[in-house]
Amino acid sequence: MSTTTSVSQIQGRQDLLGQTVVVIGGSSGIGLETARQARAAGADVILTGRNPERLEQAARELGALSTHAFNATDSEALVDFFGSLRAPIDHVLVSGSGPYYAPLAEMDFDEARRDVEGHLWLQLQVARHSVGRVRPSGTLLFIGGTGGRRPAAGSIISTLTAGLPALVRNLALELAPVRVNLIAAGFVDTALSASLLGDKLDERRDELRATLPIGRVVGPEDVAALAVHLMTNTALTGATFDIDGGQQLLG
After folding, report:
1. DSSP state of 65
2. Contacting residues for 125 by C-beta, under 8 A, at least 6 apart
3. C-alpha distance from residue 14 to each of 38, 59, 159 (Å)
4. How far apart are CA 93 and CA 24, in angstroms?
5. What is the pTM assigned to this prediction?
6. Torsion angle, CA of 187/5/68/72, rounded to 10 degrees?
7. Which of the four pLDDT bands, split at 50, 70 and 90, describes residue 37?
8. What domains are defined for the chain?
C-alpha cells in the first residue's frame, strides 16, 4: 500500500468530515502520517510535538488547526495542553516512542523511568485528561509494539508490551462510551527506526522483504490507515490490533 493510494481512498469517503483529531507526537513518522490521512478524510487536526520547527513544518503541510510544542511526558505541560482545548474533540492518537534496551547490570534507571513514562504513564494521563473533552463514541488510540512479546534478558519493554493491552481493556470499560484501542506495530520504516538501527537499517529492510508473508516492509501509511479505520468504526473498543506484516507468524 502506498501513501498516495491509501489517502486517495480515504478522500473518497470523507469519514472524518467535521471531526477533530488530536495527534500527540504528530510532527513525524506514524503520527504525522495519521494526521495526513485524517485530514484527507475530512478531519481538522491538532498536532503536538517536541520540536517546534518540525511541528510548524508539518502544520503548514497539512493545514493543521493548531500546534502545541511540548514534551508530552511533562505532566504539567500535558495538563496545560488539554486545558487549552476550547472545543470538544473526537479522537486522540498517542504515537509511540522508541524502546530503551539495556542489560540489568548496565541499566540507566533514569532512562528506564523515562521509558515507563512514555509507554504507560503518558497513556494513563492522556486518558484521564481526555474525560469530558472527547465526545461520546470518540476514540483514544495508543501506538504500542509487538517486539517485546518475547522475553529478553535486560529489557523492560516486555513488561510494558504486556501491560498496555490490559490497560486498554480496563480504560475501554471505565471511559465508555469513548472507545479505547491499541495498535501494536512490528517494524515500521520510519525515521525513528532508522535512528535505532543506524547502518543496519538496509540490512533489516532486506531481511523483512525476503521473509515477511506480505513480501514488503510495513510503512507508516499502513499504520495510519488502520488508525483512521479505528477512529471511524464505532464497533471497536478495548482491543489490540497487530500490524507487523505477519512477522509474528515466523516464530
Report:
1. S
2. 75, 78
3. 9, 20, 38
4. 6
5. 0.90
6. -20
7. very high
8. 3-243 (3.40.50.720)
